[in-house]
């Protein structure tokens, strides 16, 4: 086992860690894909705030969007990429490791 894997912070991802981005990743992990408007409603964010967070996640390669016409209007659908799913799951593992009770000293 390498020293990096012993470090509980190894999977900690500051891009994912921001509260709204963490919530976006959690929602997309659970749903697989969600319409922008649904994410906006579920997280109670303005469209501009959500757009800024999604842009950060897209720039990191964690989220991708798909545009499609639905009910004669163009809709944007979001989903985690494989890299985004790995980053999110790694971040959760790091948080669990950080918050886990430490072994008492012998």
What is the number of beta strands?
3
CA-based shape = elongated
Let me know the largest β-sheet. 3 strands, antiparallel
Quaternary structure annotation: single chain
Unreliable stretches covering 5 or more consecutive residues: none
Helix fraction by DSSP (H/I, runs of at least 4): 55-70%
Strand order of the largest sheet: 1-3-2
The number of helices is 6
Gyration radius from CA atoms, angstroms: 16 Å
What is the overall pLDDT average? 90
What does this structure look like?
The protein has 106 residues and is of the alpha+beta class. The chain has helices at 3-6, 14-17, 19-31, 36-43, 47-59, 82-99, and strands at 34-35, 63-70, 73-80. A three-stranded antiparallel β-sheet has the order 1-3-2. β2 and β3 (73-80) form a beta hairpin. The longest helix has 18 residues, at 82-99. It is elongated. The mean pLDDT is 90.
In a nutshell, what does this entry contain?
By secondary structure, the protein is an alpha+beta fold. The protein is 57% helix and 17% strand.
List the helices and strands and how they pair.
Layout: H1 3-6, H2 14-17, H3 19-31, E1 34-35, H4 36-43, H5 47-59, E2 63-70, E3 73-80, H6 82-99
Antiparallel strand pairs: 1-3, 2-3
